[in-house]
Amino acid sequence: MAASTRTLKRPTQRKLRPNVREHPPRRPASPRALGQVFTPPVVAEFLVRWATAVVPRRLLDPAVGDGVFIRAFVERSQRDTRLRRTRIIACELDPRLAARFSASSEARALGGRLELRTADFLRARFDGGFDAAVCNPPYVRHHDHACDDGIFDAFDRRLGRRVPRTTNLYGLFMLRIWSLLAPGGRAAIITPAEWLNADFGRTLKRYFLDENAIDEIIHFDHRATVFNDVLTTAAITLLRRGRRSNEPVRLRRVRRTRELFSGRTTRAVARDELDPDAKWSPLFDPDSNGASAGAKLEQFARCVRGIATGANEFFVLRPSELLRHGLDRADVRICVSKAAHIRGPRLTRSDVQRLIDADERIYLLDPRTPLRPAVRRYLALGRRAGVHRRYLPAHRPIWYRPEQRDPAPVWINVFARSGFRFVRNEAGVSHLTAFHSIYPHDGIDADRLHALLSRRDTQRRIAAEQRLYAAGLRKLEPRDVERIALPRGDVRI
Ligand SMILES: C[S@@+](CC[C@H](N)C(=O)[O-])C[C@H]1O[C@@H](n2cnc3c(N)ncnc32)[C@H](O)[C@@H]1O
After folding, report:
1. Whether residue 92 has its Cβ less than 6 Å from ligand 1
2. Do residues 11 and 135 both lie within one domain?
3. How far is the centre of ligand 1, averaged over its atoms, from the C-alpha of 48 (Å)?
4. pTM, full prediction
5. Which of 231, 253, 284 is the last residue of a domain?
6. In this predicted model, what pLDDT tens digit does every residue of 83-115 receive, in sequence order?
7. Whole-angstrom distance, CA of residue 365 vs CA of residue 356
8. What SS3 state is found at 154?
9. Same domain (yes/no): 264, 310
10. How many separate domains does the chain show?
11. 262-285 tens-digit pLDDT
12. Residue 325, class by beta-carbon neighbours within 10 Å (0-12 exposed, 13-18 middle, 19+ buried)?
């Protein structure tokens, strides 16, 4: 593969170094695939200030983008002359961004002290360690990033453990940055807060705890929108080599970016008190003791996601559409398709009738065999629209037959802003993926369980399991629901 290291030197660019293997993108990737989310200048200033407190000889920015950290560094070195000898090594995969950055005034101001490499940070080779690193790595989910087994295997070997293949690209950047730090080196990294709670984050947390790497984590309040147009909560991780073994890990919550410079530590926790398998977001809540006590829901019930059709507009019909296509009620079953369709803590037959009267999408296609002529005609329409080739229908044994499972007695909504709602399904109907199904184990009373789940103190306990997105949006996966700690209460029949 052709090398493409670009080293900026005034007045001319230095030649490629033959011993450096670079991996430029094979084809231009989209901004989404490159995880291009840009850091606000005030946050960049904070990261640079913390990382360069050691007056680094070499500073790394592995995902330079439009150079916000370098700009902050140049501004800082105007005030602190000791930083004027620091060499900057910057890396950027997107050649267009790299070109734009290399033409910027800060790149020109740094002249020969800046080495810009148009390369994949995870594959590029670097000489020696870095005393400091600042980074806002790309956020790319494992489905979408191009990390092959070779990259993961190399991480496995370096860490001496298996790195989950579901790790977001930013997690791999964090690991690589840590591996490149010189003794005493510091890294300030801003990422989504997701890794603190996500399953893939366990390995990162365990590894960083084993390495005694974490100096501080700063968690932005879920109401703070750090990245203007992106629905994600943010956390800043400050990693430092050479921490004393008894130094605590500081955890801090900030509500807005300007608190970065003033906010107090929420809590300082001894390293061995941090459980890498637990969700860490609740630890940043100054009012919580961080523990989720009591029996977990999984002891009383199992939770599974709702029915996924793969094409709701075809499979879930309004009463008027049923009429129009001449379909029989016996070829559909009642299925709630939207969280907004349910108002209270109970779903009764009259609620269902209200949805039918309002002509909402409520009938899930579930045809009898042999297929009736009206059903055949309707399925032909679906085929013509290519519904049978969509991912989920194409992967079902019979493309038009939905999952068969009993209606769940209790439901919980998947997303919430103000609070999660448990619904007692008295109408005995099914639901789509807007809800998760809760099936009580044998001997557990659905009404009692629903009452316990609906208590105010359960809501507080849910906070320990939820995943936070920006603007107050929260999400629960079925496993999160099963891990909810319940208040005391009798739920047996
Ligand atoms: C989240 S943006 C951050 C940009 C900038 N540092 C900032 O903070 O505003 C991540 C940057 O990494 C670049 N990038 C994506 N994958 C990369 C890779 N494998 N190696 C190096 N850079 C990469 C993207 O093009 C993007 O510019």
Report:
1. yes
2. yes
3. 17
4. 0.64
5. 284
6. 999 999 999 999 999 999 999 999 999 999 999
7. 15
8. helix
9. no
10. 2
11. 867 778 888 988 999 988 988 887
12. middle
